[in-house]
Design goal:
Blueprint: E1 6-9, H1 19-28, E2 33-39, H2 51-57, E3 64-70, H3 78-84, E4 88-92, H4 99-108, E5 112-117, E6 135-139, H5 154-165, E7 171-175, H6 183-189, E8 193-196, H7 198-201, H8 206-224
Parallel strand pairs: 1-8, 2-3, 3-4, 4-5, 5-6, 6-7, 7-8
């Protein structure tokens, strides 16, 4: 199944002093989804925001809220993030012992279920979960901080996941080091959702965001061929 290219700017790189406006601006600039990086200081070495912040952002746009839960445990908080307005809830395969239960819970909440893999985690970890997921998020940096360099070995991992997914209607997302220079390779390998933080928000204006999003999208479309 061929999904459209989607650009999902990560608000981790936005100006937190005007976060609602940043969300509105980046969607006006052409973003397809808004990527929400939730970090707990435990699963990853950083702390960002929780469901109350997301709830406060929800009125600023109707765009898909793509929530990436870098927290452990995740299960006790799934309902809170669902009620906050997230459309996709992505949990890490490494964050708990009962991944299938977590994915079932997300779907029972009426949300799309995603699973994320750290760079060192093999794709075989989720081989038996494929019929329970709507999205696979491939980390192309080690999670926790924005602005890191893309790990080139992940391109082949994306390719293997694409082959493993087959004709299932699963979207493949990449997060980490996505720029116009790397977008073509990850799209060519089989991903269709590209998360970009600093590559989008570094400009600080709607026009800059629009140019950055367009450049990433064009590179991805070209890479896909």
């Amino acid at each position: 199944m061929i999904h459209p290219i989607r650009i999902a700017p990560s608000i981790l790189a936005a100006d937190f002093s005007k976060l609602g406006q940043e969300v509105r601006d980046v969607v006006d600039a052409g973003a397809d989804w808004v990527h929400l990086d939730v970090m707990d200081g435990h699963f990853v070495p950083n702390i960002t925001f929780g469901p109350d912040i997301i709830k406060s952002l929800r009125p600023y746009t109707d765009a898909t809220f793509d929530c990436h839960l870098m927290i452990a445990p995740a299960d006790p908080f799934l309902e809170a993030f669902a009620k906050a307005g997230c459309d996709i809830l992505t949990v890490h395969a490494e964050a708990g012992p009962h991944l299938h239960r977590s994915l079932q819970t997300v779907r029972a909440l009426g949300k799309r279920a995603g699973v994320s893999l750290n760079p060192a985690t093999p794709e075989s970890t989720i081989e038996y979960m494929l019929d329970a997921v709507d999205l696979i998020l491939v980390m192309t940096v080690n999670p926790g901080f924005g602005g890191q360099k893309f790990i080139a070995e992940m391109e082949e991992k994306i390719r293997r996941i694409r082959a493993m997914v087959g004709d299932r209607p699963i979207e493949i997302e990449v997060d980490g080091g996505v720029t116009p220079e790397t977008a073509g390779a990850v799209a060519g390998a089989g991903s269709n959702v590209l998360v970009a933080g600093s590559a989008v928000f570094k400009g600080g204006s709607v026009e800059a965001y629009r140019g950055a999003i367009a450049a990433i999208r064009a590179a991805a479309e070209t890479g896909r061929g």
